Amino acid sequence: MVNIVRGLIPAAAEVVTMGYRDQDAQLARVAAAHHAGKRCVVVFMGDVHFSGFQYLERVERACGHEVETLPGISSAQVLASRARVCFDETTFITFHRRGDLAPFKRHLVSVLDDERNAIVIPCPWDAARSFMPRHIAAYLLERGVSPWHPTEVWESLTRDEARWSGTLAECVGRECSHMSIMLIRRQEERLMSDQIAARTREAPDVKTEEALDGTKTEYEYMDCGQQAQESLFKELFEIHWNHLRFGPCLPGAVFELVLTEKPRVSFLDGYLTVDAGPWHFHLCVGEYKGKTAHHPESKENLTEIARQRRVTKAAFFKTTDTAGSPQSWGLRFWNGRGEQMITVFLPNPFRGDDLRKLKEPDWSRLDLWKTLRKDYLGEGRES
After folding, report:
1. Interior CA angle at 175 toward 169 and 176, to 5°?
2. If we measure between CA atoms, which residue out of 256, 244, 255 comes closest to residue 348?
3. What is the per-residue pLDDT across 32-41, written as a single tens digit (0 to 9) for each?
């Protein structure tokens, strides 16, 4: 901070620097100089009344009286200008403070539940207290906040600015510098393009297949566009990973893999990678351009190879037994050659995550099924 204004400091002035660990001792030194008759100025980045009030209190405690403050421009104000949000519809919360953060975390949840925007200053301190954008996003998702909130992270505002935008769910894997500030918009303000498309599409194609054993599977087909598929898989494996069973599901070969900890999800050259540490899998959900190929394909073949590899058919499915009673719910994906790529089994109301049969059906376990269908097939489709 001192280096930013060093050109404004007279050469004869004494400069006292301080950090979080030695603030009290250094402020005592400044207060002693003040009481000795010297004119002292404490420099603070932004506006001390936005996220530095605790610091101001420590300055006044060291001096033994109130001090004059000059308002500055906070990064919150700069962000509001850059992102074009109205403070009347926005709540400002800072975690850049000492003490217990829990009340402020709960307040943030309430703000979003009240359908207000939130401008948030993270806590960039040591690992034990760090509450950066990725931690904030994970905390909110754990408490049931919608993963679709449009989210922005701005870094080094008014200097070497950088901006990231996406959804709250996507922010979970985002590493940010300590000079970052976060905007979480109310969901109504800017629906994701995938959701908008889902709500304006015609009713999805529906097809029922009957197996030789008399069981039936009803398929409802969804958008296979890259944006929709990336969004869906990120939601599945970054938010709901601990409630899924997945793998190829073919006659005579059914894989039901589970994750014991949250995987890393990434995208490169059209491929989704879900990395669980000891193992991982790749799935082509977007446009493959051959950038990662060990033996680059010829241009003549690349278009057809890309078509065959990527997801070209995706559907929600519900399987019923011979009596017509539902048995399983999930999603299934096929490549351009019509081959099944992966099946994702969603929570079942008749069985727990460990597959043990429940004494009574737990219909709340269909909430994920209903939510995903509403978002990816269209509004109101929750059966």
Report:
1. 110
2. 244
3. 999 999 999 9
